[in-house]
User: What shape does this take?
Amino acid sequence: MNQILKTSNLNIGYKSKKETVTIAENLNLNLDSGKLITLIGANGIGKSTLLRTITGIQPALSGNVFLNEKEITSYNPLDLAQNLSVVLTEKLPPSNLSVFELVALGRQPYTNWIDALSQTDVEKVQEAMALTQIEHLAKKKHFEISDGQLQKVLIARALAQDTALIILDEPTTHLDLLHKVSLFKLLKKLTHETQKSILFSTHDIDLAIQLSDEMIIMTPEFVVQDQPCNLISKGSFDALFKDENIFFDAEKGKFIVT
Amino acid sequence: MADKKRNTILFVLLGLGLVFMFFSSISLGSVNIPFKEVYSSLTGSHASKSSWEYIIINYRLPKAITAVLVGVGLSISGLLMQTLFRNPLAGPYVLGLSSGASLGVAFVILGAGLLPSFLQTIALSSYGIVLASTLGSTLVLLLVLVVSQRLRDTMAILIVGLMFGSFTTAIVSVLTYFSTAEQLQKFTFWSMGSLGNLSWSTIGILAISVLIGLLLSAGSIKPLNALLLGENYAKSMGLNFKKARLIIIFATSILAGSITAFAGPIAFVGLAVPHIAKLTFQTSNHTVLFWSTLFFGAIIMLFCDIVSEMPGFEVTLPINAITSIIGAPVVIWLLVRKRNFK
Assistant: This one.
């Protein structure tokens, strides 16, 4: 099993002139190739901060993030873009981009100064579109397709970037149950077929338990990474929401409203 | 692949259109000169009347070249701003760059009386005016940029541009109280815009400025494509955002600033032309958009110039009025066809 990303004694949080706010301490996480890993935690717990730190957007308070055994801060932007791609939650700015053009933008780290696509680039784009089954949308404008389709297009763009690790920030929000399931299955298929490592944050805990290879749970007390069944037997889910209205049923593997 | 074929055809048509417009602009004017005479003046053999030759070489040819430079420069600067600000309504005039340039020029023309006489001569030379105008537009662009970092809302940025516009107008009207009638007239003529008052040497300065701006813009094609997905995606695809933004801002300022200095504040070209290019080519790829905006900018500016000359009439209309009359309806039409702003 190949290790793609590893954190060692990582402390994450914000530093301003006045004070330092630590969000989580002593994180030792491993993202391996061929694994679908989900990140769960309550709202405001710091999932985005963690994702921002391990993608190198935000500096760590202390500790290290290693991507392919190299410290992430020592990458130049172009090298980093060839090793790590992201799918963000933010809305795309207005433009006339077609689905094909959008996916092709994933090839930017490899194209020349006028952004011309080589034969290899076109093949990679077509491959990414085939894997995500969006070939029929190629000529559509990106604003003409549904939310579920757009999410697939953004994933295809990340695939075209041809990186060992893909990180997605809450890709299943705004989707109905059917599309959530199909997106989870797609991500799972991609990790297994391409041997990439995929990490994504989500609030769909039931689906995550059923479909991910590993999970990272963030709670105010601890951050833990393990296989879903081990996490259940360890009782890690109990600490996720501290509320009398909801509890975790270990036998059913899901949260029940009291 | 079908797109590629269509694009080639469109570019050929645009090229022919440009050549046609360029020669029309030279052939048409208040003085009627037969086309054959125009041709012989341009090719160096003498026209049958020396006054005709003089008009062609020293008046119409420089004016046509200025129109091309102005059209190309303003349109490209509009294209850069629309992508950088993620705002389809951005352009050098709308965001207040032209106002900033006007303010700079107003200070120089109207405020020169307050300076000692040797400084007056320097300030009122064409170099002084270019410098004041470029400084003014750069200043406004930087201000807009600072504001846009705080306000993510695209409409707010436009309102800020509008505010700069009225602020400038107010300052200029204050300045008019302290200036002579002669200075006021000079400024008023400048602010109506003109393509025709440039000597060959000033065209040289303008051409160099526009060329620098265009080269920097061409170098920014890839960053601009990346920015279509927004700043964060662009960074994740390996873009050095700060450097790219600096180059784009500099290119925009030098284009809008130098053009406004020489030709006055010209409205709507920078806003409307990139949209015409985007609609015609149905793409967001800046490699295609750069060239198509370039051609459309030149063609449309030459057309406005021909209209302002009103062949057969004695008078020349201010170019700014023509671009507004043609440009404003185009922008409204674009707004109504909301699809393009999604």
